[in-house]
């Protein structure tokens, strides 16, 4: 199910009609060195971008950012922002999701879709560089 949703979201971004509440995360492949773009929920909160990786450290994009924490994020209607990511092992992912969900209906819908694939979630904090 999640793969189908990700394909739809990627197509929407490619057509330049991103779905509200969604964002793109760009990491560097830990083996290939190539840029990898992954649809994520919009967790922007000022100079910090919050994510919850539903499959935890087994998620490819989490493994990528652990190998190279420099990332970029894009939210609809905004330019790409660079930042430094880190996994917060001591953060409560469920509480963090609730915090992100307070950003509006579109974020709640994105999180509800992402939650269908829940495993052993972890929180990721991206400290955005000044724009």
Q: What is the strand and helix layout of this fold?
A:
Blueprint: H1 2-14, E1 22-28, E2 35-41, E3 44-45, E4 48-53, H2 60-67, E5 70-75, E6 81-88, H3 93-101, H4 105-114, E7 122-128
Antiparallel strand pairs: 1-2, 1-5, 3-4, 4-7, 5-6, 6-7
Characterise the protein shown here.
The structure is a single chain. With 131 residues, the protein is of the alpha+beta class. It has one domain (2-128): Electron Transport, Fmn-binding Protein, Chain A (Pnp Oxidase, Chain A), CATH 2.30.110. Helices cover 31% and strands 33% of the residues. The chain has helices at residues 2-14, 60-67, 93-101, 105-114, and strands at residues 22-28, 35-41, 44-45, 48-53, 70-75, 81-88, 122-128. It has a 7-stranded antiparallel β-sheet. The chain is globular and about 30 Å long. The N and C termini lie far apart (36 Å).
The main pleated sheet reads as:
7 strands, antiparallel
What's the number of helices?
Answer: 4
Main β-sheet, spatial strand arrangement: 2-1-5-6-7-4-3
Strand content: 25-35%
Weakly predicted, low-confidence segments: none
In CATH terms, the superfamily is: Electron Transport, Fmn-binding Protein, Chain A
Q: Specify Rg, calculated over alpha carbons.
A: 13 Å
Distance between the termini: 36 Å
CATH class label: Mainly Beta
Give the total of beta strands: 7
Shape, principal axes of CA atoms: globular
**Element order, helices and strands?**
HEEEEHEEHHE
User: Could you please say which CATH topology applies here?
Assistant: Pnp Oxidase, Chain A
Mean pLDDT value: 87
CATH architecture: Roll
Helix/sheet category: alpha+beta
The total number of structural domains is: 1
Helix content: 25-40%
